[in-house]
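During the no-cost extension, the postdoctoral fellow (Dr. R.K.) reprocessed legacy sequence entries with the updated structure-token encoder. One reprocessed record is reproduced below for audit purposes.
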Amino acid sequence: MNFKFEEDFKENLLKLTVSVDPKRYDLEREFYGFKTATKLLENYECPETHVLGECLNPVQAVDNEIPNELTATWCFHLTPKKADNSKATAKKATTRKKKKAHEGSSEQKA
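Re-encoded structure tokens follow.
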């Protein structure tokens, strides 16, 4: 099994491509799915400017017995971290004035 990571910062994607050689009579079958792809992500170091997101196409597999499934590419979203450009400002202390009870409000009209 061969794999490689490709970072596409224009589209904010990480592409994980997994490929296998075609099965020969003396080799065993190789089958890899999304579970294997997520284990391979342990070898990936995400840049400090981005956060690795969810997979956009998890339902695929690599199988060395099927000629058109010798290679698969899983795409993961790379979310850019937001720069903290806001200035730290202290909030103004707000106090509420207590309302005075009206003395004449409980009087009955005669």
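The helical segments are 34-40. The mean pLDDT is 85. The remaining legacy entries will be reprocessed before the final report is submitted.
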